[in-house]
Amino acid sequence: MTLNRQWLLKARPHGMIGPDNFEYTETPIPQIGDGEVLVKNQYLSFDPTQRNWMVDRPGYLPPVGIGEVMRAGSVAEVVESKHPDFKPGEQVQTTGCWQDFAVVAPGQGPMGVNKLPPGVSPEMMLSILGITGMTAYFGLLDHGQPEDGETVLVSGAAGATGSVVGQIAKLKGCRTIGIAGGEKKCAWLTDVAKFDGAIDYKSEDVSERIGALCPNKWDIFFDNVAGPILEAALNHLNLYSRVVMCGGIANYNNIEPVPGPNNLMNIVTNRGRMQGFIILDYLPRAMEAIEALVGWVSAGDIVYEVDIQEGFDNIPSTLQRLYTGENFGKQLLRI
Prior knowledge:
alpha/beta; Quinone Oxidoreductase, Chain A, domain 1; Rossmann fold; 2 domains; seven-stranded mixed sheet; six-stranded parallel sheet; 10 helices; 15 strands
């Protein structure tokens, strides 16, 4: 291969994201300087927050510019190195973006570049041990602060983050209820991930089912969705409850802002707490989460699903799967 295939951001999204927002191009393979590493992407990670990176507004990372390569996490192979810590043939995790080749260096970009631990597959590194697994770990334990016997409600529960949140909550002695879309995902939650109950938002009245499955209300709500599901959840919170705000995928593709929950005062009257967080703030503690997650996975205490699409041409359509609900578990693509 002598050229670097790339997908560029062509137009900012207006409504549902789609392949028309991106443009294919080919450029020369980049050259590296001292302290840099040339990598060839093997797997790409797809995350709901990528939709936010495409919007021209301030955020925790700068927006992707029109004509720039679309940002994404990846697992890649080192092709050439002018850094003493990296050798050709090694596998690394980095922000390789939607392209074949990328120039990376330690300490640069959102995640820098890190070698995969021995025995860890690319699929594992980009899912349970990656951003989504760490988000579940720190979001629940640092912000939710679960205690034995409490009830934990999780939206987006069959997703890469939500499914791990629920299982960690079970390990901490909590009763866990998940909200997901469709019979297949709900069955997986109770039969495989061992949630205590599941609510199908596509076919059930969410508020009614929360009341039925949480007769003593909930103590922690880990929210990946926002929108009407957040409002439904706020009808059933306990005294001193905690709402962990992780994402809002229900609203990411809206053209116009939608009204917020009309029952936020329930947080006040029940002395609750609602807090957002960004996983990048926790990267210095990454090994804490990785070591715990490896232990739980090795012991069979946590299971996870990976949805792998194939082929460079399918990169834009794979991102869209996150917002249509087609993906099941962590969405990846093998180049």
